[in-house]
Design goal:
By secondary structure, the protein is mainly alpha-helical. It has helices at residues 2-19, 29-39, 53-61, 66-75, 88-94, 124-135, 142-150, 156-170, 176-185, 194-202, 209-216, 227-240, 245-258, 263-277, 281-295, 301-311, 317-324, 328-331, 338-350, 354-363, 365-368, 378-388; strands at 42-48, 76-82, 102-106. A 3-stranded mixed β-sheet has the order 2-1-3. Helix 4 runs parallel beside helix 6, helix 7 (142-150) packs across helix 8 (156-170) and helix 15 (281-295) runs antiparallel to helix 16.
């Protein structure tokens, strides 16, 4: 009888140990992070208040469940924070807690690892799913991103991930309004530095919210004092009005009134660059090189002039010699960028350096055979062959 009683007690102890719910760490926040590092676990934080009904419901009905305890105790140091007492208010501010209960999933340094919504009470499966998503044990599907966005999730980390997921799912890049939401997702004190400041500057187009922000806070945007960045910034608005003369005049005159320092220089570059859109490639190269000599290379100079030089019917040797350098990095990269090989050899030939062009062709003759049947690489391949056969390479045509 005594043996049976001992076995029953042992079984009860074993059952209770197995079926216990979540274990919460008792100590300071810094001590909690130390414990997480020691145990090599993530941190789960339950932000609650004493008056919060759903918080009490979670503590009574979900936290004690065996499956919940087994999973959370295995993967997390669990930590409860009263948002109105002790360290609570400061931590709630740090994690931008806006309702209760709020669940935060963080690494051992205290950095959030879950960009999804985690406010409000949940049932057993919903609570376990949150943890699996936070740990990357369950895939965040496009349906999940849509649901989070439609439910009003506007966390910085979530928006960035959502825009990437939407681009992959629907080939839909962020709109200006999307970027405005992203900018405003940053704490106000952080918006004048780093990434938020870059977003505000480069998303500005004449008349939009970002433009007004820049116009009213010029002293906070140091790139406005750099000619290359200021010209590129102004031209972002001019390009959006391209092909609409009346609108272009309105945009330019408006920008010149607001930002007079580099407006005329920007218009000079814009007018020169328009030649490539009108297929005046030879003149485009001449005008762009003249701009470079006068002001230095503008932003995206390689992109602007690179293809025009390859398509130009007339190309000055000195211009070909300069522009060929833009393709040298791709030619010498690993793996080789074969189009760059074709461009470099062609421009070397147009620079009057025929022997050098032939040597480059010989150097890449074996590499060229990989692209023999590639329509995409036909121009580069054919020009390599022409140089190997002592023939003149041809300009690029579409």
């Amino acid at each position: 009888m005594k043996k049976l009683l001992l076995l029953a007690v042992a079984g009860l102890i074993s059952f209770n140990a197995f079926s216990q719910g979540m274990e919460f760490f008792h100590g300071t926040w810094e001590e909690c992070k130390v414990e997480a590092k020691k145990e090599n676990k993530k941190i789960f934080i339950d932000f609650y208040t004493k008056w919060c009904g759903p918080c009490r419901a979670m503590a009574k009905n979900v936290f004690p469940l065996p499956a919940v305890g087994e999973f959370y105790n295995q993967h997390f140091i669990n930590y409860k924070v009263d948002a109105e007492v002790g360290e609570g208010p400061a931590l709630a501010k740090q994690y931008e807690v806006k309702g209760f209960p709020t669940f935060i999933y963080a690494d051992a340094e205290g950095q959030s690892i879950y960009e999804g919504s985690s406010i409000g009470a949940s049932d057993e499966e919903g609570f376990l799913r949150l943890a699996r998503l936070a740990l990357g044990l369950e895939e965040k599907t496009w349906a999940w991103y849509e649901e989070e966005y439609n439910n009003g999730n506007r966390k910085t980390e979530f928006l960035e991930a959502y825009f990437n997921a939407r681009m992959a799912e629907k080939s839909m890049p962020p709109s200006p309004d999307d970027m405005w939401d992203l900018y405003n997702s940053y704490p106000e004190a952080e918006r004048w530095n780093g990434k938020p400041l870059q977003i505000a500057f480069w998303q500005a187009r004449y008349g939009n919210k970002f433009y007004e922000l820049v116009k009213n806070n010029k002293e906070k945007f140091p790139l406005l004092t750099d000619s290359h960045n200021a010209v590129g910034w102004i031209n972002s608005s001019l390009y959006e009005a391209m092909g609409e003369p009346t609108k272009l005049d309105e945009v330019f005159n408006g920008i010149k009134a607001d930002f007079p320092t580099y407006a005329d220089q920007a218009k000079e570059l814009f007018d020169a660059d328009q030649l490539r859109f009108n297929k005046k490639n030879s003149e485009h190269v001449v005008q762009m090189m003249a701009y470079k000599e006068k002001y230095g290379e503008p932003l995206q100079f390689d992109f602007m002039v690179g293809f025009s030089a390859l398509q130009a019917k007339q190309l000055k040797p000195e211009h070909a010699d300069y522009i060929r350098g833009k393709y040298e990095e791709g030619m010498n990269s690993e793996p080789v960028h074969f189009f760059s090989v074709g461009a470099y050899t062609y421009l070397t030939y147009k620079a009057g350096k025929t022997d050098e062009a032939k040597k480059v062709a010989q150097r890449f003759a074996k590499e060229a055979e990989k692209y023999k049947d590639s329509k995409k690489s036909a121009w580069a391949y054919n020009n390599i062959q022409k140089l190997l056969n002592d023939e003149a390479p041809l300009p690029l045509s579409y």
